[in-house]
Amino acid sequence: MNNKPKPILYYIYDPMCSWCWGYRPTWLLLQTKLKSVVQVNTMVGGLAEDSNVPMPEKMQHFLQQTWHKISAELGTQFNFDFWSQCQPKRSTYPACRAVIIARQSQQEQAMCSAIQEAYYLNAQNPSEVATLIKIASSIGIDGDLFAQQINSDKLKQQLGHEITRVRAMPIQGFPSLVLSVDGELFPIRLDYKSWQTSYDIILTTLDSVGNK
After folding, report:
1. β pairing state of 39-44 and 8-13
2. Residue 4 has what pLDDT?
3. Phi-psi bin for 53: left (phi > 0), alpha (psi -120 to 50), beta?
4. N or C terminus of the chain with fewer C-beta within 10 Å?
5. Quick one: pLDDT at residue 76?
6. Model-level pTM greater than 0.85?
7. 53 and 37 in contact (C-beta within 8 Å)?
8. Between the CA of residue 129 and those of 63, 98, 190, what are the distances in Å?
């Protein structure tokens, strides 16, 4: 009888990472193809710490160029009104904590999608806790309870532990895929345009590890 634990595929991301938004359609497809093959675990990496400081113009310009690049390469939709209608801040930790709250009720994917759509399609600012409270309520999470949790020391500590774990993994940025087989970690090449690439690499890796 085989009592080996099921392999785990870690998807490591940040809900305010524009490349993660670009990868979303491919990631959703890859997940469905892998249902019977691996257990999928998600982890947030935390691109930028809590800050109320307005984003410097140079950084704003860089990120707008990144959005244009992703749109050109992947056909991803962006609402550039964000840059004129909101006060951008280089702060993604609140959004990361929001998805951790949602994870507790198996709503992480719904929360991530809602944050991405608010940010990239509806020109809303997920660096603002008020925006995150509205998003939480929109997917059925109690807004008052969410507001109590979002900046709690307990949740900040939980995010800190998760970021520490992520930084110890074999990744070079977000999004990233890491396959864990019997405790051994394998970085999986990510293809923004095709789920098949990562899928084939995962199967090949599982096969080679199984034959050791």
Report:
1. parallel
2. 73
3. beta
4. N
5. 98
6. yes
7. no
8. 21, 9, 31
Q: How far is CA 46 from CA 23, 36, 158, 190, in A?
A: 17, 29, 12, 19
Q: For residue range 124-173, list pLDDT tens digits in order.
A: 999 999 999 999 999 999 999 999 999 999 999 999 999 999 999 999 89
Quick check: helix, strand or coil at residue 187? strand
212 vs 71 pLDDT, higher one: 71
For 50-79, letters b (16+ CB in 10 Å) and e give eeeeebeeeeeeebbeebeebeeebebebe
The 3-state DSSP class for residue 211 equals coil
Place of tokens 């800190």: 160
Cβ(12)–Cβ(165) below 8 Å: no
* Residues belonging to the chain: 212
Confidence bin at 1 (pLDDT 50/70/90): very low
Tokens of 76: 């991803």
CA nearest neighbour of 100 among 50, 51, 58, 163: 163
Task: Tell me what pLDDT residue 100 has.
Answer: 98
